[in-house]
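Most newcomers find our protein records easier to grasp once they have seen one. A record pairs a protein's sequence with a compact description of its fold. An example says more than a description, so a record of this kind follows:
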Amino acid sequence: MAIDRRVYEMFRDIGRDMYVHNLISSHGGNISIRVGDRMIIKRRGAMLGRLKPEDLVETGLTTKDSGIAIASTESIVHRAIYKATPALAVVHSHARYAVAYSLSRDEIMPVDNEGSYFLKKVPVVEEEFASGSPQMAETVANALKSYKVIVLRGHGTFAIGQTLDEAFQWTDAVEEACQIMLFVRIINEPFIEYRKRSDEYKAW
């Protein structure tokens, strides 16, 4: 069955935005949407920044079919997320600053106003086999039951939303917050606390 042109344009635009925002390498990352008991996801090896209509694959959420053979290698993770959450869209990036911070901490707490208000805290989860394994799928899906976006240590971010646009917004917000955190470290001046109740973010 042919993918609706409007769906393709949505994938094309978000994929291009992810590449322009340096959230992925040339062939990294993947995005998907849920449509009933089916999902549409990018084809294995396709470039998110240059998606063509034939780069979108439709496959089942619970049953295997011919589509799964050419779908993204992390389809198993997207399936698990849709089964565990009310998400209708998933965005997975290899956001560089977020990945770097994930290697030294168990949660990312933004220091800027936008990140603090929007995210408060982003958990970092870990899985030894962090590329499309059943264990990884379970770990990521469970974390996204409580958060809109998480970071898989050393791998990248997974964000959910009712639309691809919403999931992309969460993804981009984490990376911006991490960039600002790095700039603050580089400037290396005393931090002036300006937020009320920021000490409660750890419990969020």
Remarks:
- The chain has a mean pLDDT of 92.
- Helices lie at 5-20, 75-84, 96-102, 113-118, 134-143, 164-187.
- Residues 164-187 form the longest helix (24 residues).
- Residues 44 and 158 are 18 Å apart (CA to CA).
